[in-house]
Write a structure and sequence with these properties.
Largest sheet: 9 strands, mixed
Radius of gyration: 33 Å
CATH topology of the largest domain: Immunoglobulin-like
Number of domains: 2
Distance between the termini: 23 Å
CATH architecture of the largest domain: Sandwich
Number of strands: 17
Oligomer: single chain
Number of helices: 10
Shape: elongated
Order of helices and strands: HHHEEEEEEEEEHEEEEEEEEHHHHHH
Helix content: 40-55%
CATH class of the largest domain: Mainly Beta
């Protein structure tokens, strides 16, 4: 290889751009590994939350109460002899009022925090007299003496005090389990005295449910009119599900929220047979979540790794072009690895001190490292200061994008446009042919 060709390789702008582009792509490998690391830590966090919640009480979705009347029906399967089986007619309350208070607790396990709560929920309302005439069932097949009232509770471990249902002013003995799983998979139930069913007047009920749970609590709007009122000292609730509160109040003391839902707002009637309708999709309630998920922000920040690598490399590349300072590919690689280390620092520190301080410490460390290293390469105070300024601008820009998630795409697009316009302006007089 001739000395002229070697010199061309060493000084060629095209070759240097190819090298920089190749190094940028290579550095995407450690960036991808860091993203997987973030997901692994998040999965570990979720496993810890699941473990703690399983011992205290998982997220709760309360269904009911519901009155169910068993009946006998004849069923004949093709190719087999027919027979009688038990079916269930379900009746929902005309009025359902729920009020309660959530008492949040934060439990720690190693590096992780879990939001738990205790709740005291008061249920009250009325049922209309169950009317089987609309189902066209032989009256002799109706098992009135086996009618029962049930309340759906997904995690029974959360029940912390005895439950007594006052029905028409009389206490009903409540047992775990539900005879029919048409509406709810688990819960409690109580047999209804026959004289109450045959009274012919509206049936009043009320009871208090003391239940523990974690992260969220939801309700199913089973009443013809369902009213729910919740209060809590938790300051960062997230209202979700099929319905949002009609009114809510948030302040330093916590929150209060009220829902009023009509039977016309949902897609199931007041009475039906067997499992004709599913009700779970109409749940609503509140999540007691932490306002900042540092794993989500760390993962989002890694997505901008290629932008940091390219812009930092361009800074050193234009230093070579404008002031004839040579930067070796190994030096580019070291700078790129330093940029990747920022994300591991951010992830590990955020688990200890929170995302804000983790970001400040990690950004300050990497800016100081690269700026100090550039002083041995560029040997020009103005260029060194320029490198530090550009890195500060990049990390400030990234932090801004992470804080305004709803406008991150808009801000990112505007930022990229401004940077590209600035690069084109600064390089407008460079004769690339030479």
């Amino acid at each position: 290889m001739s000395s002229t060709f070697k010199e061309w390789i060493r000084t060629s702008i095209t070759i240097k751009l190819v090298i920089i582009g190749t190094l940028s792509l290579i550095l995407l490998i450690p960036a991808g590994m860091i993203r997987r690391l973030v997901n692994e830590r998040k999965e570990t966090r979720d496993a810890v939350i699941s473990e703690v919640s399983s011992k205290w009480g998982n997220s709760q979705t309360i269904t009911g109460p519901v009155i169910t009347v068993p009946y006998r029906k004849y069923v004949k399967e093709p190719g087999s002899a027919g027979g009688y089986v038990t079916g269930y007619a379900h009746f929902l309350p005309d009025q359902l009022d729920i009020s309660g208070n959530l008492k949040p607790e934060i439990r720690r396990r190693n590096l992780y925090q879990v939001v738990l709560y205790k709740s005291d929920l008061q249920f009250a309302g009325t049922f209309a007299m169950p009317d089987m005439s609309g189902f066209k069932i032989d009256p002799e097949m109706i098992l009135w003496d086996e009618a029962f009232i049930s309340v759906g509770i997904p995690d029974m471990r959360g029940i912390k005090e005895g439950l007594v249902i006052q029905f028409e002013g009389k206490p009903l003995e409540v047992n775990p389990g539900v005879p029919s799983r048409d509406i709810m998979a688990s819960g409690v139930s109580a047999r209804l005295p026959l004289e109450m069913i045959e009274s012919g007047k509206p049936l009043r009920f009320d009871f208090t449910l003391h239940i523990n749970g974690s992260e969220s609590i939801r309700f199913i709007p089973m009443g013809k009119t369902t009213k729910v009122a919740l209060t809590s000292s938790w300051q960062d609730p997230s209202f979700d599900g099929a319905f949002l509160p009609d009114d809510r109040k948030l302040d330093s003391k916590g929150f209060s929220a009220h829902w009023t839902i009509l039977h016309l707002n949902r897609n199931f009637p007041q009475q039906w047979l067997d499992d004709a309708f599913a009700v779970d999709e109409w749940s609503f309630g509140v999540n007691l979540m932490f306002p900042v998920d540092h794993y989500q922000k760390s993962e989002r920040s890694v997505k901008y790794a290629i932008m940091f690598i390219v812009f930092t490399f361009l800074t050193f590349f234009f230093s070579e072009i404008l002031v004839n300072k040579k930067v070796h590919p190994i030096q580019y690689l070291l700078i790129g690895f330093s940029l990747c280390i920022f994300y591991t620092l951010l992830l590990s520190l955020s688990e200890q001190v929170g995302f804000l301080w983790a970001y400040i410490i990690a950004a300050a460390a990497i800016i100081s490292l690269i700026t100090a290293y550039s002083s041995s390469i560029l040997k020009d105070r103005k260029l060194i200061a320029l490198v530090g300024f550009i890195l500060m601008a990049l990390y400030t820009f990234l932090f801004t994008i992470l804080q305004i998630e709803a406008y991150s795409l808009l801000m990112g697009s505007i930022g990229l446009f401004v940077v590209m316009a600035l690069i084109m302006y600064l390089t407008r007089k460079i004769d690339w042919q030479k």
